[in-house]
């Protein structure tokens, strides 16, 4: 039993090719020049140099025989787990987690002294790597590549930016809830009929025709993606940042803790702070999450339109508008001068009936019932499904025990229980390991039911069966039945 939880020990960024400007630097100056950022900043300088020097040395040493396996990605000591990512050429991100301390066994208890024991198997290396990748992807989305930022600004401004961004990002990482959803971070797709999808496509085309500065657009309902013309990977990072958190999705994500930071002028480009986690508070049916605030009695509406950097089309301006559960995400050209009057005209044209069915006011009565018809049906099994081709993530719907304000139980996407999320991680690692070539694995403990994981080509699912007395043969029967229900038109061996 753990007597302490997994906790964050350090996070640092370094570039081993950086050298000091001093023509005759000391050894300490050489070490300090490589260090771009270190958290906690209050750590002793010798500790910072020691950690950075250790990882730099191990990267150089392992590179001699790593071959096609690539650079060093992880390392563990008795007390610490290191996760290492080369985010850009010669720019390394390192996350250091402190292992949970566990109670000593009975034979050691009561002794005058005993050696501290730690759970050295958790958190998993793959989860920590996923957190590092997400950290860099979000930073790149909001601020562009690190190397480009240094060229356009300065190393000092990069440090100030990281001093704001990294602590805010790490605050959103719950070390007590590491699990499968750090790795399977995809889209929750919204089910609508084909004709409705065509109408949405026409609506967005009409909007971009009237406002040619709009480069990309996406439409979602209840934080479920329905249509997008973004490149898939750019949309995935945007979706993860704006809506997704640990397997759940909400268009109010940026209004809630540990997000919910206040939009400020300093968090816009050139201001020195990060736009991460900052958004307007959604209080009415047709509000901007990112864009122009409602005009107050004390003065004009305020603006908060963060710049984003897309991998395919470069920098743009991000605007997000909501209407009765619908969210419209727009990317404007970087050069377009946006003001509150311009954005208000867009909101009004979207929210008012146009007579041709191509407005949010006319699309909402179509989308809402079609979405509810599918999403409010309770699933027979508890499961997690993921498609690596289109990054579709689907959790089973079960009636929750909590009651809504209107009475009765609600059907919500639950999937695995919180305590089960970490159990799926090693199963996912087994299926993903190319050396094992494993397509199916089942797992059970004495106090839990079976978990059956299966992968075929780009699809994988995890079936969670309740009942600790279920036999393996029964588990296999239920797994086959589940596959026949959901994948009868897909060949899965």
Keywords:
7-stranded antiparallel β-sheet; 493 residues; 25% strand; single chain
Largest sheet: 7 strands, antiparallel
Q: What count of helical segments does DSSP give? A: 11
How much helicity do the residues have? 25-40%
Describe the global form. globular
Please count the beta strands (DSSP E, at least 2 residues each): 23
- SSE class: alpha+beta
Fraction in beta strands:
15-25%
Radius of gyration of CA atoms, rounded to a whole number: 25 Å
| Low-pLDDT windows of residues | 401-410
Chain-averaged pLDDT: 88
Write the layout of secondary structure elements.
Blueprint: E1 7-14, H1 27-34, E2 35-39, H2 45-63, E3 74-76, E4 80-88, E5 91-98, E6 101-102, E7 117-118, H3 125-143, H4 146-152, H5 155-171, H6 194-210, E8 214-221, E9 224-228, H7 232-242, E10 244-245, E11 248-249, E12 288-292, E13 303-304, E14 307-310, E15 314-323, E16 326-333, H8 340-351, H9 360-375, E17 382-387, E18 392-395, E19 397-403, E20 409-413, H10 418-432, E21 440-443, E22 451-456, E23 459-464, H11 472-486
Antiparallel strand pairs: 1-2, 1-5, 3-4, 4-5, 6-7, 8-9, 8-16, 10-11, 12-13, 12-15, 14-15, 15-16, 17-18, 17-23, 19-20, 21-22, 22-23
Helix pairs in contact: 3-7, 6-9
């Amino acid at each position: 039993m753990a007597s302490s939880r997994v906790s964050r020990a350090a996070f640092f960024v370094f570039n081993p090719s950086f050298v000091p400007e001093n023509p005759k630097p000391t050894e300490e100056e050489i070490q300090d020049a490589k260090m771009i950022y270190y958290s906690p900043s209050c750590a002793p300088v010798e500790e910072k140099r020691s950690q950075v020097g250790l990882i730099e040395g191990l990267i150089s040493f392992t590179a001699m025989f790593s071959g096609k396996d690539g650079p060093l990605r992880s390392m563990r000591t008795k007390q610490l787990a290191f996760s290492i990512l080369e985010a850009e050429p010669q720019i390394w991100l390192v996350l250091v987690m402190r292992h949970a301390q566990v109670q000593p066994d009975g034979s050691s208890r009561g002794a005058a002294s005993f050696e501290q024991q730690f759970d050295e198997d958790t958190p998993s290396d793959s989860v920590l790597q996923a957190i590092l990748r997400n950290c860099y992807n979000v930073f790149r989305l909001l601020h562009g590549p690190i190397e480009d930022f240094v060229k356009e600004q300065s190393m000092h401004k990069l440090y100030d930016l990281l001093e704001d961004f990294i602590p805010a990002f790490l605050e959103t990482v719950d070390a007590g809830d590491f699990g499968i959803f750090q790795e399977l971070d995809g889209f929750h797709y919204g089910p609508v009929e084909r004709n409705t999808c065509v109408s949405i496509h026409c609506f967005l085309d009409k909007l971009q025709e009237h406002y040619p500065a709009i480069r990309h657009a996406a439409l979602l309902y209840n934080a479920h993606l329905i249509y997008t013309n973004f490149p898939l990977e750019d949309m995935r990072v945007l979706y993860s940042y704006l809506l997704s958190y640990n397997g759940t999705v909400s268009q109010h994500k940026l209004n809630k803790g540990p997000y919910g930071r206040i939009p400020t002028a300093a968090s816009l480009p050139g201001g020195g702070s990060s736009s991460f986690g900052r958004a307007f508070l959604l209080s009415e049916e047709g509000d901007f999450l990112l864009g122009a605030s409602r005009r107050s009695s004390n003065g004009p509406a305020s603006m908060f339109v963060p710049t984003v950097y897309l991998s395919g089309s470069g920098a743009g301006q991000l605007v997000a508008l909501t209407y009765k559960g619908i969210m419209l995400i727009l990317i404007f050209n970087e050069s377009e001068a946006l003001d509150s009057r311009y954005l208000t005209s867009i909101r009004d044209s979207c929210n008012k009936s146009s007579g041709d069915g191509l407005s949010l006011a006319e699309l909402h009565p179509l989308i809402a019932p079609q979405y509810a018809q599918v999403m409010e049906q309770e699933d027979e099994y508890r499961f997690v499904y993921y498609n690596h081709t289109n990054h579709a993530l689907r959790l089973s719907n079960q009636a929750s025990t909590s009651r809504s304000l209107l009475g009765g139980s609600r059907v919500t996407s639950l999937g695995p229980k919180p305590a089960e999320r970490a159990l799926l991680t090693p199963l996912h690692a087994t299926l993903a390991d190319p050396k094992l070539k494993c397509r199916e694995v089942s797992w059970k403990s004495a106090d839990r039911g079976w978990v059956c994981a299966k992968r075929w080509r780009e699809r994988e699912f995890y079936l969670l069966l309740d009942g600790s007395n279920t036999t393996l043969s029964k588990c296999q029967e239920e797994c086959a039945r589940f596959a026949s229900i959901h994948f009868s038109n897909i060949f899965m061996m």
